Amino acid sequence: MTEPLVMPVAQDAFETLAQARHSVRAFLPRPVPLALLERLLAAARLAPSGANLQPGRFWAVEGAVRERLSAALCQAWRDQVPEAEDYGYFPRPMPLALRKRQVAAAQALYGALGVARGDGAGRATQFERNYRFFDAPVALIVTIDRGFGAGGFMDLGMCLHGLMLAAQSQGLASCAIGALASYPQVVRDALDLPASEAVVCGMALGWEDAGAPVNRTRTEREALERYFTVLR
Asked: Global pTM?
């Protein structure tokens, strides 16, 4: 009999990994070896996709390129000049039930930082850190070809979650950065990307600074009965 290619996974191994993963916004200045990053991306690409089309591309930005991109994004954020996004991230208008979740997530983040609700400057300073990838050693831009429909975004989302879990399994932490989708043309101009690449998000990846207050942020998940129904 042919031996299995991999050993069976412990019953709770995935659940433990999934529960350990959380959005990290402060990292240690410890580099991530390129070979390790490539392994993580290869593992993430094992995610299923319709017709095995494997949508999405990952662009790692370093050195002068990263500095140029972050400077352009921070300036766009400070100027508050709206830009046409490549896709709609949030529902418009935002239903009240979802707005409550959004507010709760913000309260968890700024509460961990000790930033008061009325402290607009403090909140703006923290939000701008999105555009510096939270000073993580790895800064990724995620794009998708404009020709893909909604199914391509679904497939790419599974790949992104796979990447974050693969990172977690190696002791690394991550944070997806949807704020980059607000300035897609700024990203394309800074990186000289083709117009055919729609900007989906960014991602910060590296070793967690466990002592940073911001990394104590936790958000709640909906109760099972709110999103799971058995029909007979």
From this structure: 0.92
How is residue 20 written in tokens?
A: 């350990």
Instruction: Return the percent helix, strand and coil in the chain, to nearest 5.
Output: 50, 15, 40
CATH architecture of 31-209: 3-Layer(aba) Sandwich (3.40)
Distance CA 119, CA 55 (A): 40
The domain locations on the chain are 31-209
The counts of H helices and E strands in the chain are: 8, 4
Please give the chain's pLDDT, 232 residues, in tens: 455 555 565 668 899 999 999 999 999 999 999 999 999 999 999 999 999 999 999 999 999 999 999 999 999 999 998 899 999 989 999 999 999 999 999 999 999 999 998 999 999 999 999 999 999 999 999 999 999 999 999 999 999 999 999 999 999 999 999 999 999 999 999 999 999 999 999 999 999 999 999 999 999 999 999 999 999 9
Query: Which amino acid is residue 75, in one-letter code?
Result: Q
Amino acid at 160: L
Q: Is 37 helix (H, G, I), strand (E, B) or coil?
A: helix
Provide the token pair at 83.
């830009």
Considering only CA atoms, which of 161, 180, 176, 168 is closest in space to residue 207? 168
The answer to whether 137 and 30 are in contact (CB under 8 A) is yes
* Cα separation, 136 vs 20, whole angstroms: 19
Cα–Cα dist 47/25, whole Å: 25
First-to-last alpha carbon distance for the chain, in angstroms, is: 41
